[in-house]
Structure formats: structure tokens, C-alpha cells
Amino acid sequence: xxxxxxxxxxxxxxxxxxxxxxxxxxxxxxxxxxxxxxxxxxxxxxxxxxxxxxxxxxxxxxxxxxxxxxxxxxxxxxxxxxxxxxxxxxxxxxxxxxxxxxxxxxxxxxxxxxxxxxxxxxxxxxxxxxxxxxxxxxxxxxxxxxxxxxxxxxxxxxxxxxxxxxxxxxxxxxxxxxxxxxxxxxxxxxxxxxxxxxxxxxxxxxxxxxxxxxxxxxxxxxxxxxxxxxxxxxxxxxxxxxxxxxxxxxxxxxxxxxxxxxxxxxxxxxxxxxxxxxxxxxxxxxxxxxxxxxxxxxxxxxxxxxxxxxxxxxxxxxxxxxxxxxxxxxxxxxxxxxxxxxxxxxxxxxxxxxxxxxxxxxxxxxxxxxxxxxxxxxxx
Length: 380
Ligand SMILES: C[S@@+](CC[C@H](N)C(=O)[O-])C[C@H]1O[C@@H](n2cnc3c(N)ncnc32)[C@H](O)[C@@H]1O
Ligand code: SF4
Description:
The chain is of the alpha/beta class and 380 residues long. The protein is 35% helix and 22% strand.
């Protein structure tokens, strides 16, 4: 069986949710990255940790559900070092999480950091490898080379952290099919014993260095070919695709991310972090200094929110459901004739066909547009 069905064992109960903590510090700015990050501000790590603690203490009192998963993401959490991470994880030490994930980058991983993660009961580590091709890494302006990435994976293994995920990006201008194949094969090396892989097609975001060369980037047919190659290779190595960009060995899916895709509650702590309660989204100040000032002055860092309409909620359920291997119940939606070839029915649920997964964004956009037109036609 190729698909991993998540339904039989829902990872979180209805009264639980996730906590996301944003750590914005990075060694350098990667050429493709549009995330909220700061470079060269390590002197402010103690101030930031104090702010996170103050925000969490205030937030915790408002939660009506039990925090079940913790995800420390970035930016680069490992950039704050083993002492910084220990202090950060200590903020949450009164909680009983069933999963604690920390994102790390190869250049800032060390044996000491792995020991700190283990001491704080971290259950899952996600490593930003992106590629094992030196030229691709240089074009991304990554702070690591392939050897540093390999050393980091071995260091985690030797340190006894067995639930390790890696992030990969395909579609760099200088990447070839052969280079992508070598990257995937290196990731499958049994000595790393990786349990989870995320593969993303390179998105050329506005206001990034890469945007200047947007015209040189590979055609979507090339991206589709690389995606399908990864999908087949990962399946051959025992990885199950449970979401369009995510593959895991049985039982090693990210509970925290599945929580997002099931539209369950989560709160975000830190600069630019988002929160959600199934109907409403709200988000924190995205400027590092303004976030610190708000917390310092005892003000809420929340700067915006939106309440979703019933139609928006249903659209999100359809979109997220179809992106996951679980699919959606057939009675949620009438698939128009022109999109029927992209879906299949199994166990009374619609699923995207394997060959349609790389086209998911355009298929789902067409589906939602059609549903929107139908509902306007009904109400007029
Ligand atoms: C929140 S980011 C940062 C994680 C970590 N700092 C790193 O650099 O690996 C998480 C992942 O999103 C992916 N990502 C970020 N920007 C991307 C882009 N423009 N196109 C495709 N994938 C991207 C990368 O694979 C990255 O590891
Ligand atoms: S990709 Fe990661 S390391 Fe690079 S700038 Fe973005 S968050 Fe920082």
C-alpha cells in the first residue's frame, strides 16, 4: 500500500492542540527565503528568550485546550546554541507534550546541542539539508556544505536521536535530474536512518535574491518530473506519502503538522507567529524590534486577526484534506467533470491521484473556483 492513511489513529484529541515557537535567528540569509528572520542579532538572544517566556506565561492562562505538540521552528533554532535551546525548552517544561520537534541547521549542530535536545526530552529533529549538491547549496547561499550536512545527520544518530526528518528543495537553476537523484540517494543512506522527508519545489518568492533570476528557473514540467522521481524513490525505500510534500516511515508522521492540516487549534509564540482556533486566525508583530518592545511594555504582540466565513472554512477543509493521503468524504463536494481525471475514490473518499499531486495547487484552485461559482449561481 502506497498511501499512509492517518484516520484510524488520530494523533490529537479534540481538546488538544499545538504550540509553535518562532526562533528568528539565522547565520545568513538564504537566497530563496522569505521567512521572518534576523541575521547578526545573537546579542539579543537573552532578551528574546525573556520575551518568549513572558508571552507564553500570559498565553497559557487563556488556553482552553491541552497543548499536545510543541514545534520549535524558525529561522534557525539551533543558532541560539545548546544553552539557549535548553533555556527555551525549559519555558515549556510544565507541559506533557506527546511530540516535541526542533528544527536545526547543519552548520549549528554539535554533540553538545544534541545532548541538550535529549536532556529536554525532544522527540523529533528536523534538519534543513535542502540538497547534498555543493553547487546547489552555494546557489541557495546556505551556510553549510554537503559534508557538514552528512556530519550533522551522523551526529544526531550517534547522539541517540532516532526520529529525524530532513527538508529538501528541488528545482534550483543549477540542479540537474542526476543531481536531484544523487541528493535523494544520499538521503536514503542507511547510516543516517532517516524516518521522514519533506521535499519542496523551489518557490521563487518576491523580495528574495533569487527573484532577480526568476526567468531562468525550471519549467513546471521539470519540477513535475523531479517530484514524481522523489515520490517513486521514497515509496521504494518504504516511505509513505501522507501529505503532498511529506513522506514518513510508518508511524513517523509529524503530529504537529497533521494538526495544522486537520484545522485543529494551535498557538504561535514569538515574532511573526500565527495562531488558530478553527474559526479565527491571529498573528503577532513581524518586526523583531517591535515584537520585543510590545512584550517589554506589557502589551500584546498580536497585530491582526481574521474571522473565517463558513464558505472559507469548507474551502480550507477541502483543500487541506485533498493535500493529505486521507482525502475528503465524497459527500463534501461534487467534483466537476473537467477535474474528475485528477481524483479517485477509495473507501467513499476522494483522493488526488498520484500523478495529480504535483498539480495540486492548480487542481485545487480550479475546484474552489468552480465551487465558488456554483454557490454564487445558487444564491442569485
Ligand atoms: C521554516 S523554513 C526554515 C528551516 C531552517 N532554517 C532551514 O533553513 O533549513 C522550513 C523549510 O521550508 C522550506 N523552504 C523555505 N523557503 C522555501 C522556498 N522559497 N521554496 C521552497 N521551500 C522553501 C525549506 O526546505 C526549509 O527547510
Ligand atoms: S532558509 Fe532557514 S537558514 Fe536560510 S534564511 Fe531562511 S530560515 Fe534562515
